[in-house]
Amino acid sequence: MAIIHQQAVMRAESGVDLRECEGCFVKKDTSGKLVLCTENDTAPLGVVHVGGDKGEMTDYLLPAHQGIVGVRLHASPGSVEEGTRLVLAAKGTVKAGPTGTQVAVACEEGTGGQLLEGYLTLPTVQAAPSSGS
For a FRET experiment, which of 16, 82, 83, 85 has its CA 20 to 30 Å from that of 106? Predict the structure, then answer.
């Protein structure tokens, strides 16, 4: 028997209140419930599409989603222009950055706290360039 998902949308129980977290990246805690990622996470499950309260269901988009989605910028996201690579920041948000876990690319310029149009990428850890001698 094959399992085929026609969409890149999943649903899981929230471990925290995610009602105001559209565009924030999530992972599962040790009890299997969705919580917000930190900037040190390397494998987020996806981005909140429709958030639920603690104990309620939350819809999230998988990194394989092929459309334009909303991603939430950190309060201090750095310089975000169209084409900027976005990495995880605090509380499931994203920021411009050459290092960290890249999760999306901006489709427009943006400022702190904005729900920005972007497209998801497979989570990829971007290391700091090594300094040559």
Answer: 16
Query: At a CB cut-off of 8 Å and minimum separation 6, what does 78 contact?
Result: 95, 96, 97
* Residue 62 amino acid letter: L
Whole-structure pTM value: 0.91
Closest Cα partner for 25 from 37, 17, 15, 14?
37
Contact 119, 99 (CB under 8 A): no
Distance, in Å, from the CA atom of 70 to the CA atom of 72, rounded to the nearest integer, reads: 7
Q: Distance (Å, rounded) from C-alpha 14 to C-alpha 54?
A: 5
What are the 10-residue block averages of pLDDT along the chain, 133 residues in total?
Answer: 68 97 97 97 96 96 91 98 98 96 97 96 87 57
